[in-house]
Predict the structure.
Amino acid sequence: MSLKVYIGGKLYDKADAKISVYDHGLLYGDGVFEGIRAYSGRVFRLAQHVDRLYESAQSIHLKIPIAREEMARAVVDTMAVNKLTDAYIRVVVTRGGGSLGLDPRKTTDPQVIIITDAISLYPAELYEHGLKIITAGTMRNHPSALNPRIKSLNYLNNIMAKVEATNAGCLEALMLNHKGEVAECTGDNIFVVRKGALHTPPIDAGILEGITRDAVLELARAAGVPIFERTMDRHDVYTADECFLTGTAAEVIPVVECDGRAIGTGTPGPITTDLRRRFHALVREER
Ligand code: PXG
């Protein structure tokens, strides 16, 4: 059976799931999205993802044509139709089709798209041995230009940094903000461990407020690990005892090298490993 894709309240076979080439989502990257995971038939923190989607839309002056409750239901129903229990869910809302020209008022029909598919994690050995990352020369979008808190369809900023990572033989790149401070990676938030405490850049460093980031902060708090949301520079990463990334797709993944410097012992550290274990338990237990 072919996967079904939700578009505007209807389900289409994957091959027939299409929208107009006049859609401003395609023409200008004008729209918003979410990447969500389901574990054992339960969608992890669906309400938070739906809230972030509607906040992104509000910020770009886009009115999503359905209510939050209907969106949440559509996500769960689409997963059920596809008989998926462990899935990656992509929710996309485009500005809709219209005439050429930037003006969003020239569009009429925002498209709500829900794709539920199999998940693709980083290779398993990287969770064991850790990632090597580089710092990208491409800086993270200036919050006054396009705020990184908006999960917009315009991901070229991150893609440019991802290309740098790939060219350097890495799978992720660290992005700095316009002040040269540590912001986040192209699709993941970053944490370091120093002297038993957890440090991560604050939201006003110009980052996406990751839902995995929030969950890991909660887990660390519950485990009694001190937390510092504070401005960080690359020195903090190079000299950390441990480093890891968080994201819906990546979950919690250790980083063992940045710009050629081994971090800590150059192997995944104990606090990283413990938080990874706690995160796995959480996604399977939380209702
Ligand atoms: N920062 C950025 C820039 C992201 O795009 C995260 C942090 C982590 O946020 P969550 O809420 O997922 O913990 C993201 C989200 C992909 C992909 O295909 C990556 C994300 C989302 C969807 C797809 O690599 N990262």
Remarks:
- The mean pLDDT is 97.
